[in-house]
Amino acid sequence: xxxxxxxxxxxxxxxxxxxxxxxxxxxxxxxxxxxxxxxxxxxxxxxxxxxxxxxxxxxxxxxxxxxxxxxxxxxxxxxxxxxxxxxxxxxxxxxxxxxxxxxxxxxxxxxxxxxxxxxxxxxxxxxxxxxxxxxxxxxxxxxxxxxxxxxxxxxxxxxxxxxxxxxxxxxxxxxxxxxxxxxxxxxxxxxxxxxxxxxxxxxxxxxxxxxxxxxxxxxxxxxxxxxxxxxxxxxxxxxxxxxxxxxxxxxxxxxxxxxxxxxxxxxxxxxxx
Length: 273
Known about the structure:
Blueprint: E1 2-4, E2 11-13, H1 21-35, E3 40-43, H2 57-62, H3 69-77, E4 80-83, H4 91-110, H5 116-134, H6 153-156, E5 159-164, E6 170-173, E7 176-180, E8 188-193, E9 199-203, E10 206-207, E11 210-213, H7 252-255
Parallel strand pairs: 3-4
Antiparallel strand pairs: 1-2, 5-8, 6-7, 7-11, 8-9, 9-10
């Protein structure tokens, strides 16, 4: 993964096993620590740099596009992200790669280099020599790279995922369960997966304590309150609840002043053949 300064042609690069978000963040972090924050960075439309997701309703209302994690980090750092619409548009870096794939490979072969670690160690001395030979003086002496002083690069250039805090103060992330040790009055927390492989969980920008658990804690079952028999009410023998209405005979007193209803005459049915 390589960088070339547009004003001077100065080159910076580093080998990685694949092109992805973590390698892109790691290489950019190393570039910032060495040269500072650039005003803008010119990239292709690889999914690492440009999100393939469809715009949401909120994006359409705000006139924005979905951002990849790398694009989100650049926005937090105040670095403009520019996408090239064709390989020819970023021809300067493509020509650099063509040169390095020929010249650099031969140099490493002469040194007997065969691993990524050895190749990165070789770049530390090779790239400055390459830049001294092929770089040009800038038209203006002012360096527009900004100092990263005061910025927590590890907290910005990382994978951020919002998770829902459950009622038992746990969250699930990457098929693992984590117990939040602090008592939080919120429903959302932010999980940060950093370049060095560590993880942080933040609530409103503040790191909270947590640990991984293998299973969800069992909720404590509260026992029902004990009710003493001495305080319970026992209905008396003559209470309506104790009467057995279905076995009591019906007496005239029960009927009261009900009028006698004459019986209905028998109905006759005829059959016709």
